Every structure is written in C-alpha cells, then in structure tokens.
Amino acid sequence: MNPRLSHADLARVRAAAQTGPDDDVAETGPASLPLRLLLSFSNRDDEQKFSKFYNAFYYRYAQASLVVGALMIIGDVIADSLAYPGNPTNTLRLTSCLPILAAGLAFSFTQYARRRWQRVMAAFIVLVGASLFAVLLEIDRQGDMGLKSWVGILNFVFLQIYCFLILGIQFNFALAAGCGLLAIFEAIIVAGATATGPNVLYLSYHVVTLFLLAATIGWWREYVLRKEFLAKNRLKAAQLALSGQNAKLEGEVRKRTGELAMSQDAAILTLASLVETRDNETGNHVRRTQHYVRELALELRDHPKFAAALSEKQIETMFKSAPLHDIGKVGIPDHILRKPGRLEPDEFEIMKTHTTIGHQAIETAQRELGIKLDFLDCVQEIALNHHEKWDGGGYPRGLSGDAIPVSARLMAVADVYDALISERVYKKAFSHDEAAAVIREGRGRHFDPDVVDAFFAIGDKITAIAHRFRD
C-alpha cells in the first residue's frame, strides 16, 4: 500500500522546514545578532548556549596560548642575546614576564580559574604586558631602542593581537584587557615625556590606531563565530522539528495504512461471507483455509523449488487472497449450488464454471478500473486454478505439475482437507486422521508431493487451526 499524503500533510512538512520547532526559533534568526560593541544575542537562551559552547571549546585553547606566549618570550630572549651579548635586560624578561605566564598557566588548572577562566586570562595578559613594558622602559633608560621606539610599538601591537586573537577569550574580556594595555602604555609614554610635544601625540596616535585595528579584527572574529554558531543552532533546531514532523507523519501514514488494510480485509471477508451464504459451507471455512495456506507457505518458503514464489510479501498476499477462492460461486444457480446431495454430471459441469466466473470477474474489474494489483492477480490465480490436479486431471484447463501456480497448489490441499473435516448435508465430518489419509492417497495424483509433505510436517498446526476456527 502506498497511501498518498494529503495537501494538509504536505503543508505541515513545508511549514516545519521553514519555521523550526516553535515561534521563538523563527523570531531569533540571524537578524537577532545585534551590531553593537559588546556582542551578545538578544535571546537569552542563545547567549547561554553560546557561552557554554565557547567556554568548553576555547578553555584548552587559551591554556595552549599561554604556553605559546612563554615560548615566544624565550625566543625573544635568545634573539636579543645573540644581537646584544651580555645585555642585562634579557634577564628581566626571564625573571618578570616568564614567571607571570607560568603562574597564569598553573592557575588556569584550578577550579576557580576553570569557572572564570576568561577573566583570569584577561588579567594575566595585562600583567604580562605591564612587565614587558617595564623591560622596554629599562632598555630606554640604557639608551637603546625600547618602549618609545618602533620596538615598543611592535611589542604593543603583538600584545593587542595576542589579546584579541591568540588568547581565545571573548571580545568583551579581550576589550577590557586591550584597554588596560593601552592605558598602561599611554601612562608610561606621558609620564616619561620630557616635553608635551609632537612626539607624545605621534606615539599616542599610532598606538590608539593600532589598538582600534586589533579590536576591530577581534570584534569581527567573534561576530563571524556567533553567526556560524547561530546558523548551526537554528539548523539543528529545524532538523529536530522536521524529524518530529516526519515521525508524526510516518505515524499518520502507518495509521492510515493500517486502516486501509483493515478496510481491505473487511471487504474481502464480506465478499467471502456473501459467497458462503449462498453455499452450504460456513464462514469459518474461509478462515481455516486461508490459515492453512499461510502455514503451508511458511513451511515451504525455504525449499529451493518454492523460494522464488514464497517471499514474505507473496505469502501475505496469498493469505489475503485465499478467502476469495470460490468467489465465482456467486454466478452458479441456487438449485445447483445449494443442492442437498451429489450433483448430476451436467450440474457438475455448470459447477465447474465457478473457477472461470471468478477469474473473469476480477479481470473485468481490473480492466475497467485501469489498475493492476498483486492482490487481485493472486485472487484470479487461485480462483481459476485451485481445482487443477497434479496429474492433469483437474479443471478448468487440465494443467499438470509445475504448470499449476504455487498458490493454487497450496489452496488445493487446504480446500480438500477442510471439506473433508467439515460436515455437510450429504456427508458426515471426517476425523483429522481420515482426512489426512485422503490427502496422502492423493500425493502425486491430485496434489503436489512437496505440498503434501509440508502438510504432514505441520500436522499439529493444521489441527490447531481447525480447532480454533471450528464451526
């Protein structure tokens, strides 16, 4: 069955893909990221999720950046030692900057630092900057190029880049630390100026400009990071919403498929019951025979000879089709169909036509409806051929052996067995053993030998079905 989705179902799928799980998701899309100095989401839940993500991901990154900073200080000392052998200021870097970085790294492993690591990292980078500025100021006092030269500007730029990009803290913490470094640098420049001249303004202009450049780059970095986080978060929410809608629709499809299958089963049983009301047989005959057919098919499905014809789907189709094996009896006159005794030869010839009547009725229905269903094909197959015999002595076409469809071979055994154990006005019911003896006698003549063997292999199941659906 492949029931088609209604327009309303399709509309719900489209709406889920467009809106997400609820209205809040639609209202807090990428446009909710404000273009303001201290970046934050307008949705508090989004901000908390981002902070949790950022703290978890960048904590180890920030620790690693302290190690990188220490290695760069050591590299700076080595470079200066080669350029200026014996310069005492190299020792200052090792004794001031390096211990602060080492202390910051050690402190980052504490529980307090883990909870507030961004504040801790921001504070330590300011301390490192202050100690580095002190070293450069000492170089100035010795008459070399230090804080007030291009070397100082270069170190200031490095610290700002390190603060906004390398350290890995969020923009608002990086901004506070960067402002602290700028304030310290400016204070030292102003305090150490011999005159309020262009030199102070010149240096101030450049450090402020470089600070703004580093801050802008840091702001843009986090802005892009937030946009990417929000997009992924929204996509995940939309996927969850869509999966929920899909599950709901799949449940609805299963429900409707089940209802359709139940309706089909009810229609089959109704048609079969109408046939039985005109015959001398009971409604339980169709139930017993369809269950016999299924059990025989299940027993034979692993047999190499039957495997291709007895897939799980084919067995289920046979089970549903079996109750209509005698549907053609609706076309047989009552005086023959309901005769309380054996039929005369001419009457039996008319009775035989129920096979072709049933086949033609289903064929006409499929042709006029313009459909071709496996279920109806199987009904036709069983209705036409279930009175054929293995040795070719059956009707209506005199088929023999493997030319008889598998479904009809199974129905032949099921139908004859049930007729034997059922009481009729012209005979008494046979016992299971008596009916089984007739089936065994017909092996290789009336019935497919392999089907008869399967019948005896599942004798307990056959008798259980007969008892369960007894008249």
Shape: rod-shaped
Cα end-to-end separation = 33 Å
The succession of helices and strands, N to C, reads HHHHHHHHHHHHHHHHHHH
Helix coverage percent: over 70%
Pick out the low-confidence regions.
1-7, 16-31
How many E strands? 0
**Quaternary organization:** single chain
The number of helices is: 19
- Average predicted local confidence, pLDDT: 81
Specify the biggest β-sheet.
none
Q: In terms of structural class, how would the helical and strand content be classed?
A: mainly alpha
The amount of beta strand, in percent, is: under 5%
Rg computed from alpha carbons, rounded to a whole number of angstroms: 45 Å
Give a short overview.
The protein has about 475 residues and is an all-alpha fold. About 70% of the residues lie in helices and about 0% in strands.
